[in-house]
Amino acid sequence: MLQKLLIFISSIRWQDFIDIAFNSYVLFRLYALFRGTDAFRVLMGIAFLWILQRLAVSMGLILTSWMMEGIIAVAALIVIVVFRNEIRSVFRARNIWAILWGLPRKPTKTPVEIITESVFDLAKRRIGALIVLPGKEDLEEFVQQGIPWDGRASTEMIESIFWPNNPVHDGAAILDGNRVVEVGVILPLSHRKDLPSAYGTRHRAAAGLAETTDAMVIVVSEERGTVTIARGFDVLTLDGKKQLVKALREHLGIRENQSQFLKKRKLELRIAALVSLLIVSGVWFSISRGLDAIKVFDIPVEYANQKPGMDLLNTSATSVRLYLQGSRALLKSIRPEQIRVKMDLDKAVAGTNTFAITNNNLSIPPGLSLKEVRPMVVDVNLDTRIQKTFPIQVDWVGKLPSDLLLVRAKTEPSKVELSGPKTILNGMRTLYTTSVPLNNIKGSGKMDAKLVIPSAFLPVLILKRVETGFKDTVEVEYEVDKRK
């Protein structure tokens, strides 16, 4: 078991480590960005369906796996369409560095006490107000005609925004953290029939935004001097400041022991990073190591470490057929150039040598295993290299014209030295030139002719002119005379 584990670890490439690390980080970033959103919860459900689909495939449940695959495809489209606002708000509110690297930082504290004091002070003076505290969703699609403000929230600023002589006092003010980001905002009106008839435009606007987003809206009635909050489909009139403080803390996620909460958040992120690594490693293992397909490769055989003074005559196979087993995805990405069959001739001797093809002769990408090889053995014929000198003979063909007579012919050089296998060279006595036609000769002269070497032995024969060095052609000098 330990040996198999070591073999598995040694077969992992450095590219595999990068592959796993990159995808683990992407999964962790998605968790860090979308944690707590409805879109994330739906994605978790889709991931669970994918696990069930893979189990159905492994168990051979064809109809179930096909149905699950269709549901996952449709669910992915639904997530993009239904939760597009959440997805857009996550990416829009952050710069590229925060998306790729930054961890969720401690949010800017919303001044709960300032909002509470301002709201009840406005209610005491019978000054109408409409304050929006956004949740995690983007409000841009639902609000209109806002004026950018970007001022630090304070009691004086909030009261001055809704002062009756202020041109923007009839609209809503949007608070993000400790800043007023927009004033004079027009909110969508609710068309619910169950709202009290005493509710005016402000209350219906607060209910309309709360119904369509996760924002919390505070309304101050100028007729009755009451404070009302709208969140979701709930519209509640408050009795005092404590109720508003509690509602604000609940909406903003403010806890009494914030330092303890931050420690738990860091621990949660570490656990999420570890889980992301384990999930991606499991998926990578199932894809790259799953033995569910076989592919055939025809690979040429390489011969190496041939002894000096030995020549390779012939082999029983120039290529072998390998049946490799592995996952379909991995087999599709493999090219024949990535596979090698190498025979070591270091211990081979003169004559016929038989080599068995095993894993020691193969170099295959990690994640694949050898199922079968054909042929299983290769015969290699080797011979000792010698040098031998041969006379050169011109191969005359045809007939001279009837009035001519070949008096003399010689070659330059007259002999050559060949270096090659002993058994081949010992069976040769003379080296001939290519055919030289006699019927084309009109008189004495010279011509070049190539030496003829058997094609089967050409790769292992080395020609050497005895006098001047390497050359595979000779000069033929001939002399003719008139026939008497």
Characteristics of this structure?
484 residues, alpha+beta, YojJ-like (1, RNA Polymerase Alpha Subunit, Chain A, domain 2, 4 domains, 6-stranded mixed sheet, 13 helices, 21 strands
Q: What best-fitting shape do the alpha-carbon axes yield?
A: elongated
The overall average pLDDT, rounded, is 80
Structural class by secondary-structure content: alpha+beta
Spans where pLDDT lies below 50 across 5 or more residues: 456-460
Quick one: biggest sheet? 7 strands, mixed
User: Number of domains in the coordinates?
Assistant: 4
Task: Give me the CATH architecture of the largest domain, please.
Answer: 3-Layer(aba) Sandwich
Strand portion, in percent?
A: 25-35%
* Count of discrete alpha- or pi-helical segments spanning 4 or more residues: 13
CATH topology tier name of the largest domain: YojJ-like (1
Q: What's the number of extended β-strand segments? A: 21
Q: What is the class of the largest domain in the CATH system?
A: Alpha Beta
> What is the topology, as strand order, of the major beta sheet?
2-4-3-1-5-6-7
CATH superfamily of the largest domain: DNA integrity scanning protein, DisA, N-terminal domain
Distance between the termini: 97 Å
